[in-house]
Amino acid sequence: MEGITFYDLAHTAVADVRVKIAFEDLGRRKRSQLAQLESLVGGEAKAAAPRPGFFPLEVVSKVECYVCGYATETTAMPDHCPTCGAARYSFEKEISLAKAWEIAATAARKLAALFRDLVARASGREKGLLEELAREEEELAAEAEKERAELLT
Amino acid sequence: MPRLAKMPPIREDLHACTMCGYCVPVCPAYQEARWESASPRGRVYAMRQYDMRGPLDRLLRRHVTPDEVFARNAWECTGCGACEAICPADIPFDRLWDDVKEWMVESGYGRPPLEPYLAHVKESGNIYGEPKEARSAWLPPEAVQSDRPEVIYWVGCVASYRKQQVARAVIRILNAAKVAYRVLGAEERCSGAPLARMGYQGYVKRELMPHNIQVVARTGAKVLMTACAECYRAFVKDYKAWGGNPPFSVLHISHYVERLVREKRLSFTQALPTKVAFHDACHMSRVTDAYDPPRQALRFVKDLKVLEMFPARDDGLCSGAGAGFPDVFPEQAAGVASRRLEDATQTGVAILVTTCPHAELHLEGVAKQRNMRIDIVDLAEIVAQAL
Predict the structure, then answer these.
(1) CA of B49: which chain A residue's CA is closest?
(2) Selected residue with higher pLDDT from B272 and A119
(3) ipTM metric
(4) Does domain B275-385 have CATH number 3.40.50?
(5) Where are the domains of chain B?
């Protein structure tokens, strides 16, 4: 699932520990959703229907050293910059907590719509699970909005 | 859901943290798990959120109370002391994590795989649950115990029951130097260092510390000598910090060998023309600041080349054997150990020397599992071979 990849990358790439923890928690929720899906349809859930566009992957997929400009993939983020020797935090991105919740809320709304769409076509146990997932995403969107609004006031 | 016990007095330390993140990449748990919440900074952040919780958090039902997830993260710690060594704010993490783990145990979030250790120590005085009487079963016939010993050899659970060759090697060294020594046998109990890192420091403080100090003091010996990094740290750091104040000096075998050589009681005759790599045991190095004595002791051995592994000394990596980590997270502990073993193989040696029997057992297991050709040898064994 794209969500897991995104939240894992974001968790590694951001600098602020509050945002890191928020992303980690969101990633954990995505993992439990994937586990639910897998319990129903087996191991194919991961491979099936990779629909891009729900998460802004491009924001966190690459990191750049702010000292010398050396760029690398987030998955291979080094502890020291190999060219200028700057510490790990020279690669970390400044994403504010409000921005993080905004990303989470937008993605959750889109995913909720997707799940609702799928509910109409599914049947039996799958329908039940999808409905539950859609509800989870709606709740998440509401929670993220609330957190964001509180931060902005 | 278990009810959370009162937070230990660690508030000042939590709020001293500037969230700079120096402790994150050096933490062995983070290196394996790659989760912020498993790193020291993440754990401090979680506890700070709990400490600063206000009425709004309760109204909004935010999850700021330490729960099962936090407890699992608390035991991601191997007690290696890397975070304390690097912390620019000098937060005493080594003590702090012990307090936090104890807090979690008191709150009912203890780790089930670690409970047998406490039960075994309560029942039979050692972490393996072996019979008390068998504690000195390793004693070779040439061991001569003195009634008025100048030194007590503190064997420790691992050398008594699992790595008995270490204990026999120490006896060979003591015999060669004609030292009047005694081994306490069934009177000796676990020093409590592994238990304190697992979250049972209350029991160690109440029961083990007074008993252990008393049995050693009763013999009238002025020196306690051990060949176990964990036991050494218990006597040198923990007991003193808890007000035990042992009325004898505490030495590791490497200190003691150095002393014997300086007093001209011990001489080395055998040459050992080999190369070995030296691994700093966390409790001997970062925690108790004894980097040089083991290196000095190995330098006495003729023709022995001791190679430094990279990273070494205060940057040295953990073996992953501490704080019951291999029992709670076996895969991660094996990952930590195999990284350290790779550091050793990169120096091109076939022998790795260290001072902690716990680390030796763990590293041996992982080396065997991963088909790595490297022998793990205790410092005492190498020194005894060269006599």
Answers:
(1) A18
(2) B272
(3) 0.72
(4) yes
(5) 11-110, 113-262, 275-385
